[in-house]
Design brief:
This protein is α+β, with helices and mostly antiparallel strands. 24% of the residues lie in helices and 35% in strands. The protein has three helices and seven strands, in the order βααββββββα. It has a five-stranded antiparallel beta sheet, covered by helices on one side. Strands 2-7 form a two-stranded antiparallel sheet. A hairpin with a 5-residue loop joins strand 5 and strand 6. It is elongated. The chain starts with a strand and ends with a helix.
């Protein structure tokens, strides 16, 4: 499994009037974790896109456990369990500073040619980086 962690402070604009993080922001946290994982692995999304492959989101699943609040520091754990072929599946868990599980989720990304917009296989550069970083 390829695994990465990122910590972020909850920002005021992410919360509602009660100081609770709005549910839509967890999907943004998933993206922050996913982007950070690829950056740390040495293959940022921008490099993949510059090579002519885009990664559109195919589906997002999110299961809320307990809310994050203003002043919390969240830890986003991003995990890839297998080397992708036609789609990239990234599982995420989000915890607060007390290690309380706030949310779990899965994001599925496809691969398309940036010119034709037709589906393509996972770029070899991405597959090899993921394979190299499997624990």
């Amino acid at each position: 499994m390829m695994r990465s962690e990122l910590e972020l402070d909850v920002r005021y604009y992410e919360t509602d009037q009660m100081g609770i993080v709005h549910h839509s922001n967890y999907v943004r946290y998933f993206e922050c974790g996913r982007s950070d994982m690829m950056q740390k692995a040495g293959l940022p999304i921008e490099v993949i896109e510059a090579a002519g492959v885009m990664l559109p989101v195919v589906s997002v699943e999110c299961h809320y456990k307990t809310p994050a609040k203003m002043g919390d520091r969240v830890r986003i754990v991003s995990m890839i369990e297998k080397v992708p072929m036609a789609k990239l599946v990234v599982n995420s868990e989000i915890y607060n500073q007390d290690n309380v599980l706030l949310c779990t989720g899965t994001v599925v990304l496809g691969f398309i040619d940036s010119v034709t917009r037709h589906p393509v296989r996972c770029p070899e550069s991405l597959a090899s980086v993921i394979e190299k970083n499997m624990e």
